[in-house]
């Protein structure tokens, strides 16, 4: 049974995004973090100090562990950014230099 069956949800048609060149299925309304988790991807950032892997931690926009580069823009919080058809997500190395805007 899928999660959508449990809650009786009727999401719109699926679409695809890419993560480091890999095509992933997404549903309307899913955050980028949710799409990555659903594909079994738990890490999409490498820390500047030590090169340690990071992914989502709080899931509510507070910890900034989930930063990813989305469509060429670094420092997007994957737990807050809604996936859109054709999005290109890439692993972010370090913390980038752009401001937090989402
Ligand atoms: S998981 Fe904490 S800000 Fe996204």
- The separation of the N and C termini measures 33 Å
Report Rg. Answer: 14 Å
Largest sheet: 5 strands, mixed
Kindly identify the CATH topology: Ubiquitin-like (UB roll)
Outline the low-pLDDT stretches: 98-102
CATH architecture: Roll
Summarize model confidence as the mean pLDDT: 89
Total strand count, please? 8
Please estimate the helix content.
Answer: 10-25%
Give the count of helical stretches.
Answer: 2
Give the amount of beta strand, in percent.
25-35%
Number of domains: 1
Could you spell the SSE succession in H and E letters?
HEEHEEEEEE
Question: What would you call the shape?
Answer: globular
CATH top level is: Alpha Beta
Ligands bound to this protein structure: FE2/S2 (inorganic) cluster
CATH superfamily heading:
2Fe-2S iron-sulphur cluster binding domain, sarcosine oxidase, alpha subunit, N-terminal domain
In spatial order, strands of the major sheet run: 2-1-7-5-6
Class derived from helix and strand content: alpha/beta
């Amino acid at each position: 049974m899928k999660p959508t069956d449990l809650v009786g949800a009727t999401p719109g048609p699926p679409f695809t995004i890419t993560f480091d060149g890999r095509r992933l299925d997404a549903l309307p309304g899913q955050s980028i973090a949710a799409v990555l988790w659903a594909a079994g991807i738990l890490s999409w950032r490498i820390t500047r100090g030590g090169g340690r892997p990071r992914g989502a931690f709080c899931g509510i926009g507070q910890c900034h562990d989930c930063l990813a580069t989305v469509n060429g823009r670094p420092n997007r919080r994957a737990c807050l950014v809604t996936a859109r058809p054709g999005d290109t997500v890439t692993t972010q190395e370090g913390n980038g230099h752009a401001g937090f805007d989402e």
